[in-house]
Amino acid sequence: MAKREALRELQSRLAERLQQARTEVRSVSWLAVECGGLGLLFPLPTAGEIFPVGTLLPVPHTQRWFMGVANLRGGLHGVVDFAAFLGLRAPIAREAVREQAQLLALSARFGASCALLVDRLAGLRSTEQLRPEPPDEGPRPVFAGGRWRDETGRVWQEIDLAALARHDQFLAISA
Residues in domain CheW-like (predicted)? Predict the structure, then answer.
């Protein structure tokens, strides 16, 4: 019970900080999450709301990484196991979703009623906290932005949510 209350308090504080970051001229640029062991950065202007993982209803004949649909603030949103979509791990069962997992809804301006299942929220990051990394050699998905390194040496991959929302593979949920 105490874990749930602590998690709700963290979510509330993070929601307040996200709203502050959107209205202030500060240099906070990204929402940081962990997904399949990888650190990901979502630009704040394109990230939507954060929700706890609630009831997910399965949708037959869909890709394994498509977990189903969830009711988020009265609207149906498709839920994507983002780590599985990226090929970082096998899809997880709805019953096996960890307590720290969250749903990150894409901004409504993309016209995609979709939420990404991420393993854990890691807070906010600014350009002052990160150094750009040289680009990788080889093919990269169109939605993969720049790579950044923090003061501890951890590499963070920026994800362009607008490009993700238009990506053919992401939109092709039927199996």
Answer: 27-170
pTM of the model: 0.81
Supply the DSSP string of 20-53, one letter for each residue.
HHHHS-S-EEEEEEEETTEEEEEEGGGEEEEEE-
Annotated domain spans of the chain: 2-171
Which superfamily does 2-171 belong to? CheA-289, Domain 4 (2.40.50.180)
The answer to whether 116 touches 86, Cβ cutoff 8 Å, is no
Say how far apart CA 168 and CA 140 lie, in whole Å.
14
Question: Strand, coil or helix: what is 44?
Answer: helix
Q: Mean pLDDT across the chain, nearest whole number?
A: 88
CA distance 112 to 25: 28
